[in-house]
Amino acid sequence: MKVDFKRIYFGVKFVVIAAFAVFVVFLFWQKGAVGAGINYNVAPTTTTKFVYGLYPEGRVEIVENAWKIKYEPVYLNVYAPRKFKKAQVTLKYKNLMESDVFVGVKVKGNAPVPYYLKKLDKTLSFDLAGAAFEKNKLQFIIAAPGIEESKGTLIIESIKIQLL
Amino acid sequence: MTFATFIKNTTQFLFKAGFIFWLILAILELLMPGFVIYYINMQLWLIVVCCLAVARAFLCKEISPPKADAPMAQK
């Protein structure tokens, strides 16, 4: 039996080009975030490329599968492939602090406090109309003034972010 | 087409296609940050392309016929 290498060669060419075309279509599909939106479930034990944080290191310690916040503020970067209208943040936490804790999203412009802050709650909703999309990323902040004195009394077990 | 030619042509094609596709994706990434890097390792892709370039250089090296000596300058 004679092997037709010319045919195999054209087959390889076709498969490679078709695979690349399919991959590019997939990327555009992801970019458009076609569907209901995007859900990110973040916990210290889970790793996802699309979410970075809580950071910076040193302000946060991972204890028993939870983030123990030692110093503030801490940040969370979330990849947003396109602009969204709303972000719904659901937090699972233990807060033993006496002072208020705030969660916010970075906004555009040069405001003295460039974050749209809300008091910590189990579910928070942020309007993203004025949010800063820097390199297609949204930045969330957790600010807990006075946490240095009451070290480690704010524990975050998981964060769920829905971009709608 | 012989097996040796098939290997040579395929390596050449994979190198060219790999490099052009990498370039296309790099441009898309520059235009839309996060478009590609979250889904594919561009550095690894480039390393593979470099390996293909080395393989191609070995496979496609053709022994060119020796050049005729240049005529000696007349004194």
Secondary structure topology:
The complex is a heterodimer of chains A (164) and B (75).
Chain A: H1 5-32, E1 38-42, E2 51-55, E3 60-63, E4 66-69, E5 74-79, E6 86-95, E7 102-106, E8 115-119, E9 123-127, E10 137-143, E11 154-163
Antiparallel strand pairs in A: 1-11, 2-5, 3-4, 4-11, 5-10, 6-9, 6-11, 7-8, 7-10
Chain B: H1 3-31, H2 42-59
Helix pairs in contact in B: 1-2
Description:
- The complex is a heterodimer of chains A (164) and B (75).
- By secondary structure, chain A is an alpha+beta fold.
- Chain A is elongated and about 80 Å long.
- In chain A, 22% of the residues are buried.
- Chain A folds into two domains: 32 residues; 128 residues, Jelly Rolls (Sandwich), CATH 2.60.120.260.
- Chain A has one helix and eleven strands, in the order H-E-E-E-E-E-E-E-E-E-E-E.
- With 75 residues, chain B is mainly α.
- Chain B has one domain.
- Chain B has two helices and no strands.
- The longest helix of chain B has 29 residues.
- Chain B is elongated and about 55 Å long.
- The chains are: A alpha+beta (164), B mainly alpha (75).
- The interface between A and B is medium-sized, with 24 and 21 residues.
Q: In sequence order, what are the helices and strands of chain B, one letter per element?
A: HH
Alpha carbon gap, first and last residue of chain A: 59 Å
As for the number of domains of chain A, it is 2
- Cα-atom Rg of chain B, whole angstroms? 20 Å
Global mean pLDDT of chain A: 85
Spatial separation of the terminal alpha carbons of chain B: 52 Å
Provide the low-confidence segments of chain A as ranges: none
Structural shape of chain B: elongated
How large is the count of helical segments of chain B?
A: 2
Number of helices of chain A: 1
The main β sheet of chain B shows up as:
none
